[in-house]
Amino acid sequence: MTELAPMEFHPQPQPGAAKPWAFPAPERGTLDNGLTVLHCHRPGQQVVAVEVLLDAPLDTEPAGLDGVATIMARAFSEGTDQHSAEEFAAELERAGATLDAHADHPGVRISLEVPVSRLGKGLGLLADALRAPAFAESEVERLVRNRLDEIPHELASPARRAAKELSRELFPATSRMSRPRQGTEETVEKIDAAAVRAFYDRHVRPATATAVVVGDLTGVDLEALLGETLGAWTGTPGEPRPVPAVTADDTGRVVIVDRPGAVQTQLLIGRTGPDRHDRVWPAQVLGTYCLGGTLTSRLDRVLREEKGYTYGVRAFGQVLRSGPEGEGASMLAISGSVDTPNTGPALDDLWKVLRTLAAEGLTDAERDVAVQNLVGVAPLKYETAAAVASTLADQVEQHLPDDFQATLYRQLAATGTVEATAAVVNAFPVDRLVTVLVGDAAQIKAPVEALGIGEVTVVAAE
Amino acid sequence: MPMGHTTTAEAGSGGLTATEHRLANGLRVVLSEDHLTPVAAVCLWYDVGSRHEVKGRTGLAHLFEHLMFQGSGQVKGNGHFELVQGAGGSLNGTTSFERTNYFETMPAHQLELALWLEADRMGSLLAALDEESMDNQRDVVKNERRQRYDNVPYGTAFEKLTALSYPEGHPYHHTPIGSMADLDAATLEDARAFFRTYYAPNNAVLSVVGDIDPEQTLAWVEKYFGSIPSHDGKPAPRDGSLPEVVGEQKREVLVEEVPARALMAAYRLPEDGTRACDAADLALTVLGGGESSRLYNRLVRRDRTAVAAGFGLLRLAGAPSMGWLDVKTSGDVEVPVIEAAIDEELARFAEQGPTPEEMERAQAQLEREWLDRLGTVAGRADELCRFAVLFGDPQLALTAVKRVLEVTPEEVKEVAEARLRPDNRAVLVYEPKSPESVEDAQLPEDPEQEATVEAGHKNEETAK
Q1: What is the count of residue pairs from A and B with beta carbons less than 8 Å apart?
Q2: pLDDT by residue (tens digit) across A238-275?
Q3: Is A168 an 8 Å CB contact of chain B?
Q4: Where are the beta strands (DSSP E) in B204-317?
Q5: How close B246 comes to chain A (CA, Å)?
Q6: Which one of 3.30.830.10, 2.60.40.2470, 3.40.50.1220, 3.40.50.300 gives the CATH number of domain B3-225?
Q7: What is the ipTM of this complex?
Q8: What is the pLDDT of residues B127-170, one digit of tens each?
Q9: How far, in Å, CA of A388 to CA of A402, rounded?
């Protein structure tokens, strides 16, 4: 073959000796005001990441005020006792900093990223926001209106619309998890400055909060900086909060959210599983990766690389909320988009992949490659300060020990093919999956019904 | 192999250095050492993008990029993905107007594997390329197009604005994703010809950044890439130059199923690599680069007529850059209200220029973006390739921050006055098909619930 002639081929090279790397161990301390602090020095990371966790879970929102935690989180960056909303935004940008906050089932999380040269300035603004937020009426009113304006945009996104429907299907109506994290139009429009202030007074205090600081801290007197900033935040002592049990109905069924004319069908197929305290977690991570972690996993091998039905389908497990004793839950799901005419065939193949996996199990080669990837990518994945800070904060938020991630890597390496198979087959049983399809019902309903993967109902897009 | 020169760190480079080398076959190599973390990034830029495509074959560069992951002389099927991921690495490829890039980030001890893989496909892709992978990846790319553009509200805005901004027949008139009809029309022979024309060592730059031994790395590069023959015959890209200003306002109104009215606009701006482009970047940052910007303060905070308002800069080297304005209206506010406010703010800015505080903030923001970009080995490798391919000098990557900080307020004012004018833009207006009733709207979800398939930048397509 002429194309091959000119190049000199060499055998595939063998790797050199691996260099040691371990997930960084943070140092823990407590400020005088009770704030827990984890910090971690990462040489070369000039942008420092700071994560603050507030013990204000979504299920503490007052009845009928879903979204108040979100509005509070956003209002933190809309002015303090020192600066108006516009000034606060300007001061942050002057420091080259970003401040993001969002509310989720476990609590409210605030993320600051700032060049280390302006760390003091960034921490000062963060501390002002937490210590003395203005919550001005006009600003809260604006955030509420803005949030109401966002809702139709979210409903128009097939992926978000699917996630909304799956939560509504899985969890009982009484559970906060059945409802949108950021509230509905009905609840958001009732939120005002007084409601935000009341939520803040009730749930935000340093004694139940944690700050994680990661970056190149060479020459930084962190203790002094924290003392002057977050150390000036005061509040009453807090009490540990019980974590409610999570129940979900994973009876196999299909819900089509009708979008006439859609050229693709968004798939979201899920159920709930245990949180990361469960012993099955490492094996489930491994098995889920083999099922749908990447382009060469079982699902994409067929749906994308053989059939071309999709740009990519992924399987994942994501913790929703966790308690100290493992009383939490995670979402186990398969997600992706397939073209409308191939929706039936794609789901048929997807179920075949799951059935084959249950019948035949994973191979040792698959398990080995998955372990090599999951463990091997750690140094890449945690190159930035933000990535390390985020994982450390997740661990705190989920009541896991500070060495959880480091231990997880060792456990993954020690997990065998049989355990990984059992975990993933239990995680995705073919008759206990709730399938949400956002697509053109007139085109896809009949072919999906013919698959026999559960009763099919159709709901309007909105 | 002629050895390149070693530079000393320059101010504003964060102490980073890079060395340059060239193999006898013309492959340019850039190396940058950094031993903080045991990882190494490999990045390969081919000097070919959608601007090189011809009429009737839009999307070919990107479709071809997908084919580069379908095996080569010594690599079977999905071997590129399997071997890199099995070695604990990550990888992807993206296509933009001006280039196609491929990159692997590896644990340092697996660097040689990534070099071997890149060399294998550069030298022997056609040994593995067949109808089956062509047909399969054509379907995958069409589904990529549906997922990221056609099935998303406002999804085709970028494509439409680009077509309005760069005239018919201009190499940047179409975007990298291409049209469905052209994707269908592409043949195996088109792909083969594309490879033969553009995939040559003398049309590429390879950078390796991270925990590396430069001498050993160069020896590996020579071993694996050195025997790949260079070839010429690449046609010069069509001329992308255009007059400095459009001279009229282009406009398109779309009535579509979208959740809210929107006003988008593309302004014609100076080419990347010029001081005026950096000045334009600062102007757009002051006007629409964050929550203290003039447009955000005016439309979102004060007038409360918009949900979101922002400016972005698409830097282009072979044609005028594009300043992209995106405003989604609040409630039932009409587009002319928004447009009048924007024109007023832009005119005021052109007249006054930035305040000292605005300059400081904009420069701090752009400096921070550069710190983020250069803070990972993969980001650094990509920037070194970018400056080498587009401007002939990778060292420029390490001084980019310094250049942004040197721009004066007068230069920012000057570019705003000359370019941010109504007669220098293309405007796209979205009107919802039926007046949106949010009466029974409920239950949105958070972005983290979205599909986890990697998405690239708006102007890039990705293989993964």
Answers
A1: 299
A2: 888 888 899 999 999 999 999 999 999 999 999 999 99
A3: yes
A4: 204-210, 250-256, 262-269, 306-314
A5: 32
A6: 3.30.830.10
A7: 0.94
A8: 999 999 999 999 999 999 999 999 999 999 999 999 999 999 99
A9: 12
